[in-house]
Amino acid sequence: MAEKFDVEQRWPELFAQLDETQRHAVVQSLASAWHEGWVPNREDVENLTDRARGAIDAAEYRRRAHAAARRHAAVAGR
Questions:
Q1: Nearest partner of 42 among 20, 15, 70, judged by Cα
Q2: Best label site of 1, 3, 4, 58, fewest CB within 10 Å?
Q3: What is each CA distance from 76 to 37, 43, 70, 72, in whole angstroms?
Q4: What is the Cα–Cα distance from 20 to 71, expressed in whole angstroms?
Q5: Residue 78 CA to its chain's centroid (Å)
Q6: In sequence order, what DSSP letters do the residues of 14-43 get, joined into one string?
Q7: 14's torsion region: left (phi>0), alpha (psi -120 to 50) or beta?
Q8: What backbone torsions phi and psi does residue 64 show, to the nearest 5 degrees?
Q9: Contacts 24+ apart (CB under 8 A), 65-73
Q10: Predicted TM-score of the model (pTM)
Q11: How confident is the model at residue 77 (pLDDT cuts 50, 70, 90)?
């Protein structure tokens, strides 16, 4: 696990269009995953911020998440 949880500092442009409530919800969700061992990456953060601000719907969020999982599994040789 990374030593520091710094998603807002790493990708501030992804948080710029979120209101305070949306930003807080996204950060809390990502922090929870980080505490469980998830390593922050731009794609996951972008997908969640897109969903939070309404740029994509739940179906598109799931499609993106499944596509990312398939790519990661292929790279890992699973």
A1: 15
A2: 3
A3: 17, 17, 10, 6
A4: 32
A5: 23
A6: HHTT--HHHHHHHHHHHHHHHHTTPPP-HH
A7: alpha
A8: -65, -45
A9: 68/43, 68/44
A10: 0.87
A11: confident
